[in-house]
Amino acid sequence: MKKITILFLLSVLIGGLSGFAQIPTNGLIGKWSFTGNANDESGNNYNGTVTGATLTTDRFGNSNSAYSFNGTSNFISVTGLNCTNDWSISFWYLSNSTNAFDMQYLFGNGVGTNYGRGIGISGGGNAQITGKKLISYDGNAITGNWAMGPSYTNAIWYHVVVVDSANYHRVYFDNVMYPKVLLNNIDLTNLTIGKRSDNVWFFNGKIDDIRTYDRVLTPTEVTALYNEGICFTSITVTDTLIINANLTGYYPITYQNTIKIYPNPTNDHITIDFGSNYSTLNGYTLKITNSLSQIVYTTPITQLQTIVDLSTWTGNGIYFVHLIDAQSNTIDIRKIVLQ
Q1: b vs e for 276-313, b when ≥16 Cβ sit within 10 Å of the residue's Cβ?
Q2: Which pLDDT score is estimated for 128?
């Protein structure tokens, strides 16, 4: 029997209100959202130089909002960061590697004889590293040390935060802390995204939403980055997903329309109630995609109610609900999970 667990309560306040967690900006050195280009959005002008990597969909299905790397020659370089003491880096990645032996770097920062330093992933076939793992390496091709982290699966987005100081070396993987993954002589001077600094071990997959800081992020800040763009409210299958649309007043807060999404008693469908004033959403579209950005359902908002057959979806997993306005702007995106 299929069961839907709604992970995130959608509260779309088109008037500009937001329930998002506060994203840390203190100590921000560089920010690359990869929305259309590799420019630094922090204001510090650490713009990335793109070599071969191409724009692609991000974890929410937005076009031209992440970079894809081909595993053989693509990378992005950023110079001049010079974070050699306390530093942190946050990013998302999705691996497409099919080579079991592959070592692939998500970012490299080695220079001189220590050109091998960086953070990457293993393909599972290396004699030193068993399974697909997040790794760090601190030397060159001849001498150096490996540190192994958590396992990963291809075609799934993962969030990684690396934090480092003289006495503090941590990696957070999907908001879970691993204390022994980062080796203590890796720094953040120059940033090479998608390969090792000496032009080997190229990454095959997607990378997105990179931020660098000149300080150690706290666990609370890591959680905020992990939950960026979502309003985290756990509710049960019996609850209703509510979208309040078109803010009309503040005291009290009122809306032109309310959209409700809820399971059928059969647990084989979801019912989408677009609200009695659905005509106020003329030109709007509701779209649902899976974790591979494939569209499993889309409909213009032109009727009071519709029922969606879940058997046509692509199986259990995470799905994303997109509310899109008449100008094709994505107003909001939230997750649902089919179990």
Answers
A1: eebeebeebbbbbbbbeeeebbeeebeeeebebebeeb
A2: 60
